[in-house]
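From the methods appendix. Each design record in this collection lists the tokenized structure first, followed by the designed amino acid sequence. Records were kept in a plain field format so they could be parsed without special tools. The example shown here is representative of the layout used throughout.

RECORD:
FOLD TOKENS (276 positions):
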């Protein structure tokens, strides 16, 4: 659910970036998948509404090519009220093909920059990037990918990262510092990423957090991944508008989130249970 909870935060940051440059920024969505971030930012659509659309029996029953045709018409019927233009990077060719074919992304790059060099054509696409964002890929994508992206950009982009608390950010912050960017972490708020897929992931995450000295009480212990918001950008921009001044977290998302893995006290100590 991170595209949902991140949307108002990203909107505030994009507004600050647009205000600073007086142009509509180009956003690179790293790990963009099928373009959901572009959909909720560009159009007056909600994550919940899109979820209901694609979960319908009628939609699930049709083939991919037919769905792309329908979605091309669906998205073109809405006004683009977004604050940015979107390009995407993902390892999935079908996802990039879909997101560009239906008009969510202006351009898409299929590459695994953890293992591959950046092609000349991909570097050309990235040249004008103003903002880089990720809502769940860090921890799987490292500074290897971001270094190649930054080397290809002509500007010093802002980098918006929603990072699971179990993943250290030091090596990325150091990489960004080499490119003249300072890093700020929003205090006082975390953002729900998703539920744990099974008991093993739940317990493994709690163990990882404990080893890092991070208290999971009331957060991951309640059966949900939590992410921090981290923003990297030129020091001059951070001085003019600190992160705490840009972002206001007015309220969380209170929608139902389904069963979660939690710890409950039993005769043999804490045990994992699936809470409705």
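DESIGN:
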């Amino acid at each position: 659910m991170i595209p949902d909870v991140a949307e108002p935060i990203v909107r505030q940051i994009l507004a600050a970036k647009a205000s600073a440059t007086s142009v509509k920024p180009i956003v690179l969505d790293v790990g963009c998948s099928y373009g959901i971030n572009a959909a909720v930012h560009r159009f007056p659509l909600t994550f919940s509404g899109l979820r209901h659309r694609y979960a319908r029996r009628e939609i699930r029953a049709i083939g991919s090519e037919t769905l792309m045709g329908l979605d091309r018409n669906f998205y073109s019927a809405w006004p683009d009220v977004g604050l940015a233009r979107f390009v995407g990077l993902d390892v999935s060719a079908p996802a990039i093909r879909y997101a560009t074919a239906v008009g969510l992304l202006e351009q898409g790059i299929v590459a695994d920059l953890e293992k591959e060099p950046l092609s000349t054509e991909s570097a050309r696409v990235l040249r004008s990037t103003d903002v880089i964002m990720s809502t769940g890929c860090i921890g799987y994508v490292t500074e290897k990918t971001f270094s190649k992206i930054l080397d290809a950009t002509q500007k010093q982009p802002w980098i918006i990262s929603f990072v699971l608390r179990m993943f250290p950010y030091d090596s990325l912050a150091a990489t960004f510092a080499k490119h003249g960017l300072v890093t700020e972490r929003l205090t006082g708020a975390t953002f729900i990423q998703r539920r744990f897929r099974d008991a093993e992931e739940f317990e493994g995450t709690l163990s990882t957090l404990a080893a890092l000295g991070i208290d999971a009480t009331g957060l991951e212990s309640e059966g949900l991944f939590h992410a921090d918001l981290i923003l990297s950008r030129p020091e001059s921009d951070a001085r003019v508008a600190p992160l705490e001044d840009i972002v206001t977290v007015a309220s969380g998302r209170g929608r139902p989130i389904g069963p979660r893995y939690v710890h409950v006290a039993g005769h043999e100590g804490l045990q994992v249970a699936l809470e409705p």
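APPENDIX NOTE: Residues 87 and 107 are 5 Å apart (CA to CA).
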